[in-house]
Each structure stands twice: as structure tokens, then as C-alpha cells.
Design goal:
It contains eight helices and four strands; from the N terminus they run βαβαββαααααα. The protein has 218 residues and is of the alpha+beta class. The chain folds into two domains: 3-80, 3-Layer(aba) Sandwich (Glutaredoxin); 87-195, Up-down Bundle (Glutathione S-transferase Yfyf (Class Pi), Chain A, domain 2), CATH 1.20.1050.10. The protein binds glutathione.
């Protein structure tokens, strides 16, 4: 088994990055600097024409999309506890994972990269403000889930949903949202980041958990 993970510090690739660390599997982490446009280099596009992270390379197979990567890792490394193994617990976890990936995550993309949705700078500002407000509501939904965590979002074992919740809450800081205003999610994120395996991913990505900066008034 040869596994290579292309990740970008602070990006959604943190989710599979943590899962690989939690699993204990050997893998080669490859950092892609999105702010330098490395995802658009000819070599990277030859591997992933969509120019995004994460990419998992398993032997000769290039796998993109967080949900597919997580399901692939979960099948290969069942002891890691990426998702509940079976039954309704698995169905519910997949439902939340899909929602995080197809709703919460793209809402943040409208805050962080409004230029992907319009060339017009004025409209970009409107999109950013509208999406930041929607994003706050979505973090509220995650907060309700975190308030029920026992002790993790999918039960006794830390898994993919905890890593995604941390990532999404952390991104909120860039949308002007103080993570401590979601106390259950903030507590979950801090506990998750403190796990030794996760701490290795945090260290490799040089992540600061709370990136919120209050608006300064002149
Ligand atoms: N649906 C994709 C989303 C991946 C995604 O949005 N990746 C972002 C980082 S969080 C990215 O690579 N952005 C760089 C770009 O679009 O230029 C997945 O689930 O993997």
C-alpha cells in the first residue's frame, strides 16, 4: 500500500489528513500552496484537472472529492473509526458528512472566493456578506450536533465529522465569526485538535485554531 495525500494548510484536506494520522497508516503528505496557485501548475492539473485539494493517490489510483476519499480510507482502514461501521449510525453520519461537504463547505467558498461566482467586485461584496450570514446559521446547526456529542459527533470514537466540524468552525473566523460563540463546537474542536494524532496534522499544517479577528473601530 502506498498512500500520498495532497493537502493545503488550513483547507478542507485537513479532514482526510487527520483521518490518515488517526489511522496510523504510513502516508506521504504533500503540501500544495493554494495562495501561490500551485494547484494550477501543469503538473498538478495533469493529476487533478479540477485544480483542487485534497487528492489521495493510492498506488496508481488518483482519488478526488472528500466524501470519496473518506469512504476509500474507511474501507481500507476500518479500525480508524472514520465513520461508524454499519447501521443507522453510519447512515446518519454519511448524511451529515454529505451536508457538510455539499452545503456548509460551498457556502464558505462564497465568503472566501466570491470571485468564483462573479467578476463584478461590487457583487462579490454582496455575495460575501450574504454568504457569511448564511454560514453563521449553518454553524448553528453544527453547534446543535456538537451539543449532543458523546463525546464525539459519531459517538465514542473521533472521526471524520469532528475533523470537518473543526475545519468549518475555524473557517468561520475568516468570515468574521468568533468560534467561541459556538461553545459546544469550540470545545469539540479543541478536544479534537489535542489528540496526539490530530496534533501531528495541526503541526504539519501550522494551524492556529482561532483565526477570528474582531473588527476594529476607528
Ligand atoms: N468538493 C470538493 C471541494 C474541494 C475544495 O473546495 N477544495 C478547495 C480547498 S478547501 C480548493 O482546493 N480550492 C482551490 C481552488 O479552488 O483554487 C471536495 O469535496 O474535495
Amino acid at each position: 500500500m502506498s498512500l500520498k495525500l495532497y493537502f493545503a494548510p488550513g483547507a478542507c484536506s485537513f479532514v482526510p489528513h487527520c483521518m490518515l494520522e488517526l489511522s496510523g497508516a504510513a502516508f506521504e503528505p504533500v503540501s500544495v500552496k493554494l495562495h501561490k496557485g500551485e494547484q494550477r501548475s501543469a503538473d498538478y492539473l495533469a493529476m487533478n484537472p479540477r485544480g483542487q485539494v485534497p487528492v489521495l493517490v493510492d498506488g496508481g489510483e488518483v482519488i478526488t472529492q472528500i466524501v470519496a476519499i473518506l469512504l476509500h480510507l474507511d474501507a481500507m482502514l476500518p479500525q480508524a473509526g472514520i465513520l461508524p461501521a454499519s447501521g443507522l449510525a453510519r447512515t446518519r453520519a454519511l448524511s451529515t458528512l454529505a451536508w457538510m461537504n455539499n452545503t456548509v463547505h460551498p457556502t464558505f467558498t462564497h465568503v472566501f472566493m466570491p470571485q468564483k461566482f462573479t467578476d463584478d467586485e461590487g457583487t462579490q461584496k454582496v455575495i460575501r456578506a450574504f454568504a457569511a450570514n448564511s454560514y453563521r446559521g449553518l454553524l448553528g446547526e453544527i453547534e446543535a450536533l456538537a451539543a449532543q456529542a458523546a463525546p464525539w459527533l459519531t459517538g465514542e470514537k473521533p472521526g471524520a465529522l469532528d475533523a470537518y466540524a473543526l475545519t468549518l468552525l475555524r473557517w468561520g473566523g475568516y468570515a468574521g465569526i468568533d468560534p467561541t460563540t459556538f461553545p459546544a463546537t469550540w470545545d469539540l474542536a479543541q478536544r479534537f485538535a489535542a489528540l496526539p494524532a490530530v496534533a501531528r496534522a495541526v503541526e504539519r499544517e501550522k494551524l492556529q485554531l482561532n483565526v477570528y479577528q474582531p473588527a476594529t473601530t476607528a
